[in-house]
Each structure stands twice: as C-alpha cells, then as structure tokens.
Write a structure and sequence with these properties.
Strand content: 15-25%
Radius of gyration: 16 Å
Number of helices: 7
Order of helices and strands: EEEHEHHEEHEEHHEEEH
Structural class: alpha/beta
Oligomer: single chain
C-alpha cells in the first residue's frame, strides 16, 4: 500500500507579540478532512511530530470560536477519535525515512508557527523531499513548516515557488490579528517564495511542480484531492 507522511505540530501554544502564550494546536478540519480523503482513497497515512510528541487539537477548531458549526465539530471529533491510535503515538520526525513514503502532507492550525517553522529535522526532511521532487502538500499555517527548509548551501528550498498559505489578510480578519508573532505569507515572500493568495476564506489551492498548497481550512478537501490526482495510480 502506498503511504503518505502527515507531519503535525506538537505545540499546544503560540507566543503572541506581547509575550503571552495563546492556546493552539492542529486545526481539526485540516487533519480530519484531509486524512479521510487520503485514507478512503486507499493510502496509508502515518502521522509524525517533532520528537514523537502527541499533538494537540486547537480547541477553537471544534466550536464557534473558530467559526465551526456544531454538526461539523461533532463529525471532526468522531473522525479524530477513529485515528486516536495514530495521534497518541506519532512517529518522531527525526526517525522518518522518505524512502518509505510517496508524499508529505502538512496540516495547519497556528501551532506549526511555534515548532515546525524552526525544527531542523523537519527542515531537513522537507528540503530533501523538495530535492527529490517528492509531492509535498501543505495547508494554511502548515506552510510555516516550509520556513525551516534550508538547503546545505543556506538557500531556502522553496524560493521561486508559487504557493498560497493562510493569507496576511485572513490573519488580520479572523486569525491572531496584530498579536500574531509573524505573518506566514509575508515571511515566505521575504524568503523568495511567490505567494498567490486567493480571496479571504475561499478554497484556494496553488500547484507548482510537486508542491501543492491550500490557503485555509476551507481548502482541506481540495488540497487532499489535488494530491491524489498528482499521485494517480500509485496506491
């Protein structure tokens, strides 16, 4: 069976610009909807985190604080419960071999801004995946993980790549606002990536070579479907 590596943040807080810690974690829809599309298509999905630490679901992604309807939240909870064994004992990123996988998938939530953005092992893995042209799909704030990907010569592995992420406009409208420690879109742009954000809160997916990026949680299903289309009959 073909396999996909899903990298989740292990962070439970993000430090705001005023120095306070804001509760966060992975965004429920981005994990549940993406994992469901991929697994129902016949792919085995392994979950990995820095250090193999158990990931935390962002509480706001399961209620009205995150704009999530009660019925949707219940559906996401049920699905996350169904993959509890994988969430409870993720693989350590440092022990993962890309030789075992057909693609990498990175959901968001603000948590990746805390650890995935600066984790050397995540950066090594993503830079290696990019060099191999292994498909990489990333969603929303999951794009923060790309910030860690530096080639041996010190250059950014995704410079010159067209992509999207949770946009600066969305962050100001319905994210952490001016309290955010940094804006993912702006930081990617400064490193030489070429962000192409769609309208706020739209399902927007950008594909450049083997890099597939979704703008927000609304893009979860489409991002996973684009990855399936790229992988074709490998499953």
């Amino acid at each position: 069976m073909a396999k996909i590596l899903m990298i989740l943040s292990a962070a439970a807080t993000v430090r705001l610009i005023d120095g306070s810690d804001h509760p966060t974690g992975f965004w429920a829809e981005e994990v549940a909807a993406s994992h469901r599309v991929l697994s129902e298509a016949g792919f085995e999905v392994d979950i990995a985190t820095p250090g193999g630490a158990r990931p935390t679901v962002d509480p706001a992604s399961l209620d009205e604080r995150g704009g999530v309807a009660e019925a949707d939240a219940a559906d996401f909870r049920r699905y996350l419960d169904s993959i509890e064994d994988s969430l409870a004992a993720p693989l350590p990123v440092a022990k993962v071999s890309l030789d075992d996988y057909d693609a990498v998938y990175i959901p968001g939530g603000h948590a990746p801004m805390t650890d995935l953005a600066i984790d050397a092992e995540v950066g090594r893995l993503l830079a290696d995946a990019a060099a191999r042209d292994l498909p990489i799909a990333a969603l929303c704030h999951g794009l923060a993980a790309l910030l860690s990907a530096t080639r041996p010569d010190g250059t950014f592995a995704f410079a010159g790549k067209r992509l999207t992420s949770f946009s600066d406009e969305e962050e100001l409208q319905g994210g952490l606002g001016e309290a955010t420690p940094y804006f993912v879109e702006a930081r990617l742009r400064r490193l030489g990536a070429l962000p192409e954000p769609g309208p706020p809160w739209s399902s927007t997916v950008v594909v450049d070579g083997t890099l597939i990026t979704g703008q927000n949680s609304q893009s979860s299903v489409e991002t996973a479907q684009r990855l399936l289309a790229m992988l074709g009959d490998e499953r």
